[in-house]
Amino acid sequence: MFLMGPVLDQVLDWLIEAVLACLAAIFGLITDVLLTTPQVTALPQVQALTGRSIWIVDTAFVLVFVAAAVMMMVSGGDERSRYTVKDLTPRLVVGFVAAHFSQLLCRELITLANAVTGAISDGNYDGDTTFAAVRNHIETGRDPTAPLLFLVLVLVIAVLVVMTAFQLIGRFIALIVMTAIAPLPLACHAVPALEGVARMWWRGYGACLAIPSAQAFTLTAGQWMLLDASHMLPVLGLPFEPGGVLNLFIVIVLLWTTVKIPGLVGRWVGQGGRGGTNVLGAVARIVVIPHLAGAVPGLTTIRKVTK
Known about the structure:
Layout (H helix, E strand, L loop, with lengths): L3 H27 L13 H32 L3 H22 L1 H20 L5 H14 L6 H34 L2 H5 L7 H33 L1 H4 L11 H27 L4 H21 L3 H8 L1
Helix pairs in contact: 1-6, 2-3, 2-6, 4-8, 5-8, 5-10, 6-8, 6-10, 8-10
């Protein structure tokens, strides 16, 4: 029994050192690229796949124009066919131009997203400083009297950091794929029945570019809290000099919020952007309408009579 204590302490120390080494490696991987969107349009593979996508779009448009000409000749130029062609011509032009300028569009959108992220952080966010502060709080939060608690908290932090790294890689891959196939969904603007495909591409691409901007909010606030705790924590009612365990919980909440952002953005994309409208509608029904009913004389009486 007396020998088990030192053995368990050595095992816990070994596990803690191993987890800290893994954290250091992952921090080095994601520090410089977490809040930046790479200019994937410069990749030769993306340019080659985009060229093939444009070739497919050109072929489809040739077939569409041939079908439209055949329809005009077969129908004899009646008013219905003329109206259909007149209605579809602007869509065909928009879809054709958008498909051929998709690379320029994607490049400018990525540049704009990086500029927005930089404006949000306002030059105050520094990946090296933030993750250095996280590592410092992890090391100073190590309590020799409670190694098991420290190990559990560090494991939670490690899992969150690994999830952040996987999300980062997944976002890059999604951005590459959507940039390469951009001409195909953008060409769908030409057909009313396929308009939903183009809108889904816009939402997905916008989500990939919005995730770093949203994460910049949380990481900038976390950087202020970790590096300037004397100003942030008293406002929140927390101790002036929090203990190591509290610092670790702050790090966990910071990383957990960062991990949740891609899922929330993806849910918004899956709902077709209707979530914000539903929330605003609910607020209007619950808050605005009763106040208007009370402010307008006789409106409440009319509502009761109609019921």
